[in-house]
Amino acid sequence: MIPDIERQIAAMRRDWPAWEVVTRVGECATWRGPLCPTTITYEVEIRYRIPLAIENGTVYTTQPRVTVEALAPHFLSPVAIELHLYWPAREDSSPPTLCLFDPHAHPVQWSVEDLLAETTLPWTCEWLLYFEGWLVTRSWEGGGRHPTPSRAA
Questions:
Q1: Cystine design at 37: which of 22, 45, 129, 142 (Cβ 3.0–4.6 Å)?
Q2: With the C-alpha atoms ordered 103, 105, 108, 109, is the resulting torsion angle positive or negative?
Q3: Alpha helices of the chain — where are they, by DSSP H?
Q4: b/e for 41-55, b at 16 or more Cβ within 10 A?
């Protein structure tokens, strides 16, 4: 059963009390809050919309969108393309969103039936941990299948 946005909000409030809902319209919500995988605290934003049953969306199109604004300068680096990110279209000035799981994996790693508090937030913390390693080594050690190298992935 797909949890409605109220259940998602309640789970986030319970498990991640420092996070707050900054916008809420219908079945859409945006949360902002801190994550500190090591000694650096990041401000993270998660945007999520409960898909409509008639949309017939894919895991890629229905997944939550996670951005970390403070990382933007690092994304301009020529080697940043190896990071597990989804790049916006060239005309879009939005920051890239984090690639937290393989949307084509079988069995599926994330589904609309999952609570963001139990999947997206822990995975984001793990992604940031590997990002900090990448800052030092310029080698992505987080595993996973890299999304297409195109900036429009």
A1: 129
A2: negative
A3: 5-15, 59-62, 72-75, 120-137
A4: ebebbbebbbbeeee
Distance, CA of 44 to CA of 65 (rounded, Å): 10
How far is 48 from 93, CA to CA, in rounded Å? 19
Q: For the chain, give every domain's residue range.
A: 5-137
- Please tell me which residue, 82 or 110, carries the higher pLDDT value: 110
**Among 140, 132, 136, 133, CA closest to 83:** 140
Q: For the whole model, what pTM was predicted?
A: 0.85
Instruction: Quote the CA–CA distance of 99 and 60 in Å, as a whole number.
Output: 10
